Amino acid sequence: MRRAGLPLALALLAGAGAGASSAAETTAITGARIVTVSGPVIEKGTIVISGGKIAAVGADVTAPPGAAVIDGAGRTVYPGLIDGLTTLGLTEIGSVSGSVDVAEIGEVNPHAKAWIALNPHSALLPVARANGVTAALAAPTGGLVSGQSALIRMAGSTPDALTVKAPVAMHVVYPTGRPPFELARLFEEPELKTFEERQKDKKKNREKELRRLGNLLQEARAYGEALRAGGAKPDLPLQSLAPVARGEVPVVVRADAEDDIRGAVAFAEEHALKLIVAGALEAWRCADLLKQRDVAVLLSVDRLPRRESDRYDAAYANAARLHAAGVRFAIVSDDASQSRNLPYEAAMARAHGLPAEIALRAITLSPAEIFGVADRMGSLAPGKDANLFVATGDIMDHRVSVTHVFVDGAPQSLETRHTRLYDQFKDRR
Amino acid sequence: MRRGRALSCLTVAILPALVEGGKEDLYAITGARVITVSGPTLEVGTVVMRDGVIEAVGRDVRPPVGARVLSGKGLTLSPGLIDGFGGVGLPAPPPRAAGGSGGAAPAPAPSPSNPLAPQTMALERLRPSEVVQARDSGVTTALVIDREGVLPGQSVLVNLGGDEAEAMVLKQPAALHLHMATLRRQYPSSLMGTEAYARQALYDAVRYRDAWAAYEKSPRGRRRPAYDAALAAWQAVLAGTQPLVVTGQRENDVRRALALADEFKIQVAVAGAPQAWRVAPILQARGVPLLVSVNFDPPRAASFGAEDVEKERREIEEAERNPAELHKAGVPFALVSAWAPDFLAGVRKAIEKGLPREAALRALTLDAARALGVADRTGSLEAGKIANVVAWSGDPLTAEAEVKMVFVDGRLYEPEERPEPSPSPSAGATP
Amino acid sequence: MTRRPPAGSVGAAVLVLAAAVQAAEEPVAIVGGTILTVGPQGTIEKGTVVIRDGKIAAVGKDVTAPAGATVIDAGGRYVIPGIIDAHSHTAIEAGVNECSDAVTAEVRIADVIDHRDVNIHRELAGGVTTVNVLHGSCNAIGGQNAVLKLRWGKGPDDLVFEQAPRGIKFALGENPKRSNFTVPGVRRYPATRMGVEAVIREAFEEARAYEREWDAYGAKAGSAAAERPLPPRRNLRLEALRDVLDGKVLVHAHCYRADEILMLIRLAEEFGFKIRTFQHVLEGYKVAAEIARHGAGASTFSDWWAYKLEAFDATPYNAAIMAAHGVTVSLNSDSDELARRLYWEAAKAVKYGGVSETEALKMVTLNPAWQLGIDGRVGSIEVGKDADIAIFSAHPFAPDARVEATLVDGVVYFDRARDGSAR
Questions:
Q1: Which one of A232, A304, A356, C332 is at 20 to 30 Å from C294 when CA atoms are compared?
Q2: What is the number of other CB atoms lying within 10 angstroms of the CB of residue B22?
């Protein structure tokens, strides 16, 4: 097992709005291959971290005196990965409801705010971080309107310390018209319907839900105006929806089927919403439309094709086709416990036509841009937050290990629940 | 509409004396187009029916003395249609509690009968009043079995006329049925469970047979075996005197049926079979009687996994073309309703998708009779066969053709709200 | 379903295959690739594999393609044994689980193989050639598995891996005791791990009694036919369990927690049979020594965790630790989606615990072959074995690796240039 000896993690106080960073330490990683993402690859260079920010990066940069030096020979430095769609911080063990806070009861929960319920001590956070993920979108799920997401950094001992930006978006699940899956239904007498009946039902349900959503947005718009005028009764849901209705906060709509994606685009246009599509399994079928309407996409790659008639690699090649059409997208894990595999989703897209540098961008700078934090993270450029990691090679190579991780300039422990169990049991005979 | 009573052969001789006019049992339809199915079509012909049997069919047949002569002008006669698999005559099941979308879980509707009871007789639930709609559409014979369950019991083959269920019987029991379906919350709840259940039942039935045979041979000094209605019900199938009809929606249900036939040396038939065309060579080689459903979009449970609407639609379209493909492959089959809401509409759909009309009619008459083992007595307009005859206002199985008259066991039934065809001049006159 | 490749291939740098359907009788030569044999020949650069009658006839650097052979140009490519997924639920019709009883040893996956499942095609596209299709984990003792070769296009009987030993599925822990779901109106025993053990124990006590009954009948059957009693009732469920006792059926036991792993080892040894594989076995690393002593293999996930309480102590170092203790470890998918990328799952064993690349590749080839009792036929590229082979565009662990072609019994069942869509 390749695990570098590290100093213990420093207590991390750097945070958005939490005051000036106290991590005044300067660190330099020298003689490394540096993939900045925002510029050309530096085959052999140095990156200097100071005061929680990237101070300098380049082939001719030298370590300042007094800096802690990490020898980067044979290593590659990357910007910290940004996982653009997760439930990190909101869930621990999927089957243990006491540990799961991702989906509230009821179809409409715009006022469910992810940053309220983050668990900074979740065992899942260090696990993701240990493979280079330094920021993630934590988003509620379920229902029609799931709630609002926050961008979190993968270090911090309070929800505030974790939160980089909140809200990032309102999350909606596009109504497919199908009833939601319930395990109990497996054991019940099923409702028997013909195919045609089912399609009609779906259409009816979908239209009903879309009308409901449209009405909500209209109410929210009016409510927002009333709020500004000063005379409005408390209404948490409408209050949360008002900025969305005004187009100030984007909407992430989960949709996979081509018809649903098109429906989401039409809906967003009708209601003047800023649209991001998540899931987007069939986005390649309407890439031109997405480009035209400048809709960004949060894409997971490791999925089965939707249709039996699809090419076997339809989901793998999705990203490449979006890229060719000029659509903005990020590759996401859409998970929590497996956020660490983010670089491997990007790898699969890369193996199926996505240029390698775009695959990397899709898990670094692109999500930063989509969430409006590209000024702070997503690439290795002076002035940006020092979120970065060092790897023994190409991070999209499954064999490669991460040796160092920095969040806001502070070195992070790579110890996780998994490494502790390894240490504890590896020699038990 | 005059409906005759079912009468035994013994009383037929004295009937003319008891009933007005004395013409109830003797009909001649003259001047009609006659599709015999078993032979060439007569552009102008006569069919004579006496005592429930076709007495004569031909171009130059003269109506016998005392026959009620009906003009067949403008009419086409065909053998009565056979619906070789479905629920004609059974009362409709109670409606399920509506589930709604995303609301409270639907209350499970209790099945009216035991889902694992091969001894159940469909005849016991048959209601003569329930067959009128089918008969009005030209169906004169139907195989009746419960739709629900895995072992719904034994079907009855009935002619759709008569006041009492038993009087309708053509063959009782007709077959033993195995639906390749699953139950909820009880064994078998998976298809492999259903297969295992059937195999275990058959092994138990074999042992039951052997136990009783041993006892009958030499009962002294042995404990008598226990009677078991379910195991007793399997004995005719094991003996090869009754077929096991396996209902299945999947291609592999045909294979599973044949596997059972091979393992237990029994006769099987396959019902439903919307994907049968894919295994046409196997069906050809094994000569399996095939009851092909025209219920192309039956009510089904929603799938749990990801949806593939395109595939579902494609499978329905393939099912619609299934009969045409089987015909092309030279595989004989019956077309059956399998609880289709509109049997004839389903047949017309199959025709629309490439099954020649003539082949469809054969699949509803003589080929159906063959599949059900009654081709020696029905399924075509031939002298000596049962007088199940339909008079259509045009080409049978077209949307425009109306059913004008239906004869079941030689009794005339006229579809409701249609004017009675006027009888031609007195008996004895040539058409 | 029969497939005909179109005349000529599309795109540059693709495999060259005969335009006509490849006949099984023609020899095939895979030429010029880097062969990761997973066998004693190790890695062969620019080597050739010759296939005759579906078997590997020759492997080596200096092997030449026979005259008349169909030549597959593997220059710049990697040639590996077909991947074997030791935990699959692909290609099952109408129910992975017979959930009604806690013991359902009589049900057989082989009765419900869905040969038209498009995931067969998709898994071929991921280099998989053999799958262990298992009953689900609803019951302490589930049904009998089916080992299949992915001969896409053939009927269900032709997918069965001939002569693969029979197997059966056990399940321990949260799933058979229904910790995470309820069935309205039904409370099925067991609800604790105590009850899971009791169910299995009782089943094997009954199986023993069944065996005694039949042995007694067998003894009496030697006497005169007239006196011969009726045989005992043939009980398909107990018959399968008796076959387990007699060592005729490999046991694949889904399990998570270390204590239940030990429980099953003890129970099996008490009844005189072996567990062939522990499946999932996410806490296997805690009791790796005991698993190795018993002689079971372990088939696990590379890194899934945290979806259930019993999966919370999972660690991706599981495979490495168990392997270091001498357990034969395989990495599996339990997922149609993951099954397509098992070659990368294997690479994770390198990352987590420093397993060598060769050993890691074994975890999806020779090791699962051994676990399924088919290592005499598949799992490595060695003379005499079945020509089940996957050809990759790069080293299977490399980040841009992609399967170019997959052969089963020497027939190309997947060719990336030819087979875009399964239809």
A1: C332
A2: 14
Q: Tell me how far apart the alpha carbons of residues C216 and C135 are, in angstroms, rounded to a whole number.
A: 33
So what CATH class is B9-79+387-413?
mainly beta
Q: Contact B252/C186, CB-based, under 8 Å?
A: no
Contact at CB, C93 and B187, closer than 8 angstroms: no
How does strand C28-36 pair with strand C70-73? Answer: parallel
Same domain, C277 and C345: yes
A116-130 pLDDT, tens digit each: 999 999 999 999 999
Does the beta-carbon distance from C397 to A397 stay under 8 Å?
yes
Kindly calculate the radius of gyration of chain A based on its CA atoms and give it in whole angstroms: 22
CA of C291: which chain A residue's CA is closest?
Answer: A429
Using a CB-CB cut-off of 8 Å, the residues of chain C touching B251 are 116
* Contact in structure between C120 and C414 (CB atoms under 8 Å): no
Put simply, whether B262 touches C (Cβ < 8 Å) is no
Residue A161 lies in a domain: no
For B353-383, what is each residue's pLDDT tens digit?
Answer: 999 999 999 999 999 999 999 999 999 999 9
Mean pLDDT value across residues C209-222: 89
C385 CA to chain A: closest CA distance, Å? Answer: 29
Domain check: are C177 and C42 in the same one?
no
Q: Give CA separation, B316 vs A31, A177, B336, in Å.
A: 64, 21, 16
Other Cβ atoms closer than 10 A to B110: 8
What is the tens place of the pLDDT at every residue in A387-399? 999 999 999 999 9
CATH of the domain at C45: 2.30.40.10
Q: What is the CATH number of the domain that holds A11?
A: 2.30.40.10
Return mean pLDDT, chain B.
Answer: 89
Does A356 touch chain C if contact means CB atoms closer than 8 Å? yes
d(Cα A47, Cα A36) in Å, to the nearest integer? 10
Q: Is residue A159 part of a domain?
A: no
Please tell me which of the candidates C309, C344, C400 has its beta carbon nearest to residue A96.
C309
CB contact under 8 A, B200 and C157: no
Residues of B within 8 A of C421 (CB-CB) are none
CA B389 – CA B395 distance, rounded (Å): 14
- Give residue A21's pLDDT: 39
The answer to whether residues C77 and C88 belong to one domain is no
Q: Please tell me which residue of chain A has the smallest CA distance to C401.
A: A351
pLDDT for C34-54, tens place per residue?
Answer: 999 999 999 999 999 999 999
Reported as a pLDDT band with limits 50, 70 and 90, residue B100 is very low
Say if residue A220 is in the same domain as residue A247.
yes
pLDDT at A190: 82
pLDDT of residue B417: 63
Task: Report CB contact under 8 Å: B300, A195.
Answer: yes
Centre a 10 Å sphere on the Cβ of residue A214 and count the other Cβ atoms it contains: 13
- What is the number of structural domains in chain C? 2
Average pLDDT of A239-268? 97
* Secondary structure string (H, E, C) spanning A167-181: CCCEEEECCCCCCCC
Query: What CATH number does domain B81-92+111-298+309-371 carry, 3.20.20.140, 1.20.1260.10, 3.20.110.10, 3.80.10.10?
Result: 3.20.20.140
Cβ contact C139:C176 at 8 Å: yes
Residue ending a domain, among A353, A371, A389, is A371
- At B227, phi and psi to the nearest 5? -80, 140
A34 and A179 share a domain?
no
Minimum CA–CA partner of A93 in chain C = C306
Average pLDDT over every residue of A23-32: 86
| Residue B40 C-alpha, separation from nearest chain A C-alpha, in angstroms | 40
Domain enclosing residue C66, as ranges: 1-82+379-423
Residues A71 and A195 in one domain: no
Residues A279 and A294 in one domain: yes
A56 touches chain C (CB under 8 A): no
CATH number reported for the structural domain that contains residue A106 in this entry: 3.20.20.140
